[in-house]
């Protein structure tokens, strides 16, 4: 059961830092992520993304009892210790912890002999909060610049269009066969390309000066009300009929957005959709053809 009384940021950081100060194996503490991003509104769901740079990795991994100092956990995941999801961080080790009061710490251990690798790996949202030996390189002020939407090349736009329209034929096949989950799976892959194209539109309109967040979570703040409503309406997955509507609306959104992006960037607009739409029309329920 999650308690309503939640430890505040100062209380959490005091625990994190006091533990590090009293443990000789920990030489450096850094913070990463959204808590350093001034463009992100603060709320109770933000993680504490913390890295301990240590002299002895194995002594921590022997048992997990030392983690109890941070609070009572409702669940913990150790990605580098899982069989189903192969590790990706080499010698580093991560503890993803959610506590009873709702706080969450994503704690990473990095061996001190990989300090240079760590600083070259990390993004622009990084702050050194403890450096016992004064060995960290000078750091720029934390910012989300590494996550800003990037201007696409004409090849990227072409590939995005090719992938979107190619996937639409799989969705069509799945709907015709009444293969509900197959159709949804490929529709979601289509949607990823649609969201990429919409993000480029936002980038153009904001001079590529911002981020729309992980999984496009801030996209609604930067698109028109009408476009946002269309995006929401394109997620009708409760029936085969709804999936046909979702496919059609996704095609319409993608078409319109692609025209905007290619026009603004002065790229040739890929024509994959022209033939594919004619193909899809052979299978769309008759009453829906007028909608595409």
List keywords for this structure.
single chain; 14% strand; 6-stranded mixed beta sheet; 2 domains; 292 residues; Beta Polymerase, domain 2; Four Helix Bundle (Hemerythrin (Met), subunit A); 6 strands; alpha+beta
Model description:
This protein is of the alpha+beta class. It has 2 domains: 9-146, Beta Polymerase, domain 2 (2-Layer Sandwich); 148-291, Nucleotidyltransferases  domain 2 (Four Helix Bundle (Hemerythrin (Met), subunit A)). 41% of the residues lie in helices and 14% in strands. The protein is built from 8 helices and 6 strands. The protein has a 6-stranded mixed sheet, covered by helices on one side. Helix 5 runs parallel beside helix 7 (240-265). It is elongated and about 70 Å long. The mean pLDDT is 92.
CATH second-level architecture of the largest domain:
Up-down Bundle
Give the tally of structural domains. Answer: 2
Instruction: Estimate what percentage of residues fall within beta strands.
Output: 5-15%
What is the molecular shape? elongated
Helix content: 40-55%
CATH superfamily of the largest domain, please? Nucleotidyltransferases  domain 2
Radius of gyration, taken over Cα atoms and rounded to an integer in Å:
24 Å
How far is it from the N-terminal to the C-terminal residue, by CA?
48 Å
């Amino acid at each position: 059961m999650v308690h309503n009384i939640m430890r505040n940021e100062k209380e959490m950081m005091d625990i994190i830092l006091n533990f590090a100060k009293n443990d000789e194996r920990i030489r450096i503490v850094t913070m990463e992520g959204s808590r350093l991003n001034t463009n992100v509104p603060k709320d109770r769901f933000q993680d504490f993304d913390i890295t301990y740079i240590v002299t002895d990795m194995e002594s921590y991994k022997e048992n997990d009892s030392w983690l109890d100092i941070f609070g009572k956990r409702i669940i913990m995941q150790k990605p580098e210790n899982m069989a189903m999801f192969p590790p990706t961080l080499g010698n580093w080790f991560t503890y993803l912890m959610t506590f009873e009061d709702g706080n969450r710490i994503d704690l990473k251990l990095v061996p001190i002999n990989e300090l240079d690798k760590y600083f070259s790996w990390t993004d622009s949202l990084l702050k050194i909060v403890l450096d016992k030996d004064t060995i960290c390189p000078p750091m720029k002020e934390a910012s989300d610049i590494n996550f800003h939407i990037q201007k696409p090349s004409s090849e990227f736009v072409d590939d995005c269009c090719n992938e979107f329209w190619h996937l639409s034929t799989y969705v069509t096949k799945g709907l015709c066969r009444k293969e509900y989950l197959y159709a949804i799976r490929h529709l979601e892959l289509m949607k990823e390309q649609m969201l990429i194209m919409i993000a480029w539109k936002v980038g153009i309109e904001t001079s590529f000066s911002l981020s729309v967040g992980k999984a496009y979570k801030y996209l609604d703040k930067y698109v028109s009300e009408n476009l946002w409503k269309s995006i929401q309406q394109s997620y009708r997955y409760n029936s085969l009929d709804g999936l046909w509507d979702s496919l059609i609306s996704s095609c319409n959104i993608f078409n319109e957005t692609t025209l905007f992006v290619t026009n603004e960037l002065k790229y040739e607009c890929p024509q994959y959709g022209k033939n594919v739409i004619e193909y899809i029309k052979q299978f769309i329920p008759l009453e829906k053809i007028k909608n595409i």
